[in-house]
Please model this.
Amino acid sequence: MKTRILIIGANGQLGTVLTHSLQQKYGVKHVIASDIVRKKSFKGLFEIIDATNFNALQSIVFKNKITQIYHLAAILSAKGEQDPLQTWELNMKTWLTVLEVARIHQIEKVFYPSSIAVFGASAKKNNTPNNAFLDPSTAYGISKAAGEQWANYYFTKYGLDVRSVRYPGIIGHQSLPGGGTTDYAISIFHKAVLKKPFICYLEKNTKLPMMYIQDAIRATIEIMEAPKDTIQERTSYNIAGISFSPLELYQQIIAVYPDFKTTYRPDFRQQIADTWPCSLDDQAARNDWGWKPQYDIKKMTRLMIDRLEKKYRLKTNI
Ligand code: AKB
Model:
C-alpha cells in the first residue's frame, strides 16, 4: 500500500516544518496538509478541516486514501489557561475523533504529540524519568496526559499503531510563538535580531527542557519510521534536547549582540514553568528507537540568529 499522509494542524509551529519535511521525503502528492484555514503561501495538497467533526475527517481520510495521520492540532499551555474547559474540549475531541477514524479506517500509523506539560510537582525535576507520576498543572497538560492514555488504550484494545513523543519547548525561526509557556525562547530571538529590548515573563534561572525544531522534526519522523516492535512505550516517550534558563540563553545571544538587553517580569507563566521538569531522562527513546539530539544551545543560537536576520532583511527589502 502506498504511503498517504494526513497532517492535522499543518499551519502550526511544528506542522509547517513537518509538512515540508514529509513532502520532501515522500513526495508532494503523498502528503495532505490540513488545518482550519489555508495559508496563501502554502504549496502542496491541502484540505480545510475541523478535526472535531468526525464525518468531515472520515471523508477526507477516505477520499485521499490516507494510511498515516500526524495529529498536531492543540491549544498550548499558556493560552489554554485562559479557557481551561475549551482547551480540554478541543484537545480531547480532536484526538478522540482522530483515534476513532483511524481505528475504523485501519490507518497504519498515527502520531500523537505529547508534552513535558504532562509532568507536575510530583515528578523529579532533573532527569525526569519516562515513567514518572503524572500530575499536570494545566488544562493543556491534563489533556496531553489523558491523550497518552487513550493512545495506549487504542493500541492495547484495537492494535492501532499509535506513536508519541513528549516534546520539550520547541525553538524554530519558521513561525511566531503560539501560546506556549516555553515560547519566550522564540520571542527573545526576534527581539534580539530586531535590536529591541526583551521583557522575559519567566525568572532568569528557570531552567526548562527545550529543543531546536530540526531535532524535533527528526524525532517525529524517526519514531514513525521505526520498526513496530521497537516501540515499547505506548503512552509516550521523553525526548531530551537542550536544557537552559532564560539567563543562559541570554548569555548565548549577547555573544552575538553585546548591546542586547533583557529584563525579567515573571507573570502567570512562571507558575506553570515551576511545575515542569528542568531536564528529561530520554534513555527509553535512545534504547528503543535510537533517539539522539544533534543541536546544542550554541549551534541553535547561531542558526536562529542567522535565519531570522535573513528573514527580516528580506522583509525590509520589499
Ligand atoms: C508549551 O509551552 O505549552 C509547549 C509545550 C512544552 O508543550 N511548548
User: Anything to note?
Assistant: Residues 84-104 form the longest helix (21 residues).
